Amino acid sequence: MTKSIICLVVFFAVHKVAVASELYIPKLPSQVVAKWEVQKSDASTEVVIAELLREAKYPGNSANYAQAAIHLESLRTQSLNDAQLQVLVLYYDAVIRQHYHHFEKSKQLLDNLLLIQPQNVNAILLKANMHLVLGETDQALQSCTSLLGLAPTKVVAACVIDAKSYKDDLQKSLQQLSTFMRSPKTPKNKALNVSNSPTGSNAYTEADIWFAEIQASMTKDTGDLHQAQAILAPYTAQKVPLSFWVLWSDIQLALNQPENVLTMIGEIVDKTKNKDDSLLLRLAIAEKQLQLTNLQWLPLVSDRIALREERKDTEHAFDIALYYLYIKANPQEAYKWAQINWQQAKLRDDQNLLKLIEKALNQTTVSAKSVGPSSIAQVN
Question: Looking at the domain assignment, is residue 285 inside a domain?
């Protein structure tokens, strides 16, 4: 499960790792997944946290959340007699918690913040997303509609329509969203369309990218993969969040274009010091689709998944389920992890994963019945 969250000041992405307040302490160097250098700065603590979280959503920067959590404790002390700082502490804490998959706690923090500042747009947007993740569609819609008069019309519309898509017909919601968003077209026989990509690094705003992610995700879920690809294509030359590349990769893989994933995502991951599980997994799936013998990513992913399972890292349940579905071809194990994931998050991707694995399980059952018990025993 990966979903973007827009904030008018800072943008974040929902992703799954262990909670910051309960950090896992590796016993061996081989158990270290990410490490970073401590940066000294003369900036105020709140500025340092804001910058860490602003960059955290990009590939290779997930360790920023742990760093921000450390700085947050200092800011919490400073905020004891400062109401404005107290609001910042609540907001930053909520953002960090949602990254670490503590959605209920994040929502509680946002409730406390909104008691102090009822019209805080960032908090309302983040709370709407927490409701969606928790399957609370009506509450998410209520949060979105409360943005009327506070946020730009396009932001409110995207928030409302995204929430309504979980209640109404998805195709109808997508049509409504299209009235607010411009979507480029691309020929169905064209693998990539980057001709409309900006020449400058800031040709599109972070809001534009967020809108595109929502529209492309909904379009993908209606089955129009070529159009979903076209929606994202203009932004691939720009700095975009991890959630964007996960969505882009899933579309490429569904279109049976694993070469694009190996080329584009491989280059991105090579440039990052800390490798994101979600991108490594898509690279490994691409290698599997191509039936490569000289494997670069699959062994790394297998080691990473083994480590996650050893830690009982349920926050990575979505990725682990995908690993057992596409890499190991073990639908029973995939279903176990998909169920764990569903207990925590209920976005459309989480639901689609369960359906996909259930279909694989049914096919396995039919195959087993056709083979017969005696043959299965011989295979095992």
Answer: no
92, 61 in Cβ contact below 8 A?
no
Reduced to 3 states (helix: H, G, I; strand: E, B; else coil), residue 168 is coil
Is the Cβ–Cβ distance between 52 and 62 less than 8 Å? no
Cα four-point dihedral sign 312, 315, 319, 322: positive
In a domain, 327, yes or no: no
pTM of the model: 0.84
| Angle separating helix axes 225-232 and 242-254, nearest 10 degrees | 150
14 touches 3 (CB < 8 A): yes
Domain region containing 221:
169-198+207-251
**Residue 12 DSSP class:** E
- 377 is a domain residue: no
60 touches 271 (CB < 8 A): yes
| Residue 292 structure tokens | 């490569």
Residues of the chain with pLDDT > 90: what percent? Answer: 73
Q: What type of residue sits at position 99?
A: H
For residues 262 and 295, the answer to whether their CB atoms sit within 8 Å is no
Q: Concatenated DSSP letters for 74-128?
A: HHHHHGGG-HHHHHHHHHHHHHHHHHTT-HHHHHHHHHHHHHH-TT-HHHHHHHH
CB 64 within 8 A of CB 55: yes
Q: How far is CA 321 from CA 99, 119, 136, 331, in A?
A: 19, 39, 24, 8
Residue 12 pairs in a beta bridge with 5
Read off the pLDDT of residues 69-89 as tens digits, 9 standing for 90 and up.
999 999 999 988 899 999 999
